[in-house]
Design a protein that fits this description.
Order of helices and strands: EEEHEEHEEEEHEHHEHEHEHEHHHH
Radius of gyration: 20 Å
Helix content: 25-40%
Strand content: 5-15%
Shape: globular
Amino acid sequence: MIRQENNNLHLSHPLELPCGAILKNRIIKSAMSDSLADGEGNPTEAQIRLYERWAEGGAALSIIGEVQGDPRFPEKPGNLVLDNHSDLMKLSSLARRASIEKAHIWPQVGHGGALSYSLISHPKGPSALNIRGLQCAGMTISEIKKLPDFYIKSAELAKEVGFTGVQIHAGHGFLLSQFLSPLFNRRRDQYGGSIEARCRIVVEVINKVRDAVGPSFPIGIKINSSDQLEGGLTQEDALEALQILDKTSIDLIEFSGGTYFPGAASSSDSSSEGPYFVDFCQKAQLVTSVPLVATGGFKKRSDALDALASGDVDIVGIARAMILNPSLANDWLTNRAGDPVFPRFESPPPGGITAWYTMLLTALGTDDEKSFSLDLTSAIQQYEERDEQRCEKWRRRFQV
């Protein structure tokens, strides 16, 4: 389906999704693993306050990263869990406070798959893998066919407690992304081989979630424009997958890229300078009419304006820039000086920058960012100590 180019897009223009829901402007806070749940899958006050602040800051939509439907396969022990044992009162508080000012709040429902946190999981992916740095069992046909049930339950709970939509996580190397990627998916049955077969479980999840939540509840998806690795999902694959997704009832497609797979060399699909995936969205616009989000590399208001004016993207996704300035959306919408100043780190240790931003998220959740002064080494130490404590709680809670 071909879309008519619209050069009149602007940051403040509302966007109507195919299901009829309205996003009040063209700025979303993209999913990050905030690692702020309590170690038992439930929200903390700091997590609730964090998303409330982004709503106060003007974001049309905030997406909560790495929300699990199956606690056996988490990304980290600080993930939220949406299942039969969730604390519905706390989830309702999160949904209510994060949807003030007509903001949307969606959990990003996922499954760690082969990349599940091994200290509290026995990872399973599309295919069994045993390489240095990555070991997992392969899923049986029976296990694959049960996967949509976890997404259905999470989406139903999300709707019940007041979230305004859900995003299905099929990017960044987690389970549904693994099914799409030849690096992870080496199956020779109906779920492996051609891109149509590798997409099969993704389409099944979308269709069954839609049946469960009804026609007017937003369902988004996040997928890779490419794995950016040799032998992985290519841009050509992603465009074919997009044509398949266009035939579903999906409401919003967010493009990102990159996947962790030990030993795989980077491919020529790696991102360009500036906003990373706008060029890919230009190609995607030719094969779908579903609204498109590009996430990654938007550091300046001018970048967002240029991307929207081009007609290549319908909405821009912001992540770390909204950690540095939680009111960035309002600042950009009113043309106030709001471009964040990104810190520069000399020779950062592995994982140091991610840990630093994650601990800054914690400070935002306690309204204490002005006194935040951690160096990278201290950030890593606090981050890892907190995860260790939460692993103990996770094992007791979920008996893994």
